[in-house]
Amino acid sequence: MDRAIQRRRAEIFRDLHHAEHILLLPNAWDVATARVFEAAGFPAVATTSAGIANALGYPDGERISREEMTAVVERIAQHLSVPVTADMEAGYSDTLEGLEETARLVVATGAVGLNLEDATGVKESPLYDMAVAIDRVRAVRKGSVAAGVPLVINARTDVFLAQVGEPGGRLEHAVRRANAYKEAGADCLFVPGVRDAGTIAQLVREIDGPINVLAGPGGPSVGELEQLGVKRVSVGPWPALAALGLVQRIARELKERGTYDAFATGALSYSEANDLVS
To answer: What is the CATH number of domain 3-236?
Structure first.
């Protein structure tokens, strides 16, 4: 992708985090699903690491290689005219040099943003030490600037998701990390694992930057989140999980009844599917 076009898309995407209305980001796992979301009118599309990993035969959690992940991101970004942001989990590297390379690879895909989480994947110490996590955000910023496109960094802290520490101290811990990541160069701060309106409202008040909430069943609606001051909402693996659930229902119906009713529930026509990606 032309770097000037890519930089412009990055600016557009960054500005969406400061717009009057909330940025609602659907999460795609291949070109077809990304095109469905673009055709529905979303101003940007995110990827889901879990959805991509599962589709390629891996569990979530950086079991897929960085090269396989960025290959899918590239296919998606090259087929869309709206900004694409990539879920790159914890950056697929424990070193700062490796994180700079991850940022360069994401720029090379044509994407204009990425998620970077502070989870280690190690049960005994689930989060990177905060000083290390701050340096990791800086490394991604450095790598993307060097590659010619300042990526929109969505820095994620898993304090709530991983249930780190005593419940009473998690909000202060998450706020401290989020503000430190913002200072290190992050554009948006992602705090998954929070659903109650009171906690979300506190995060909005105490974090010095736009926050991203992971929405899904049992949580506040997008309208409610907007009223709370949330600037960005994503839906993570939920669309992919719902699609797998439909395929499972189709499989059971075929095997148990030999009928095809589930095929007709909201299915696209053959030509509509082809038109999406033509």
So the answer is: 3.20.20.60
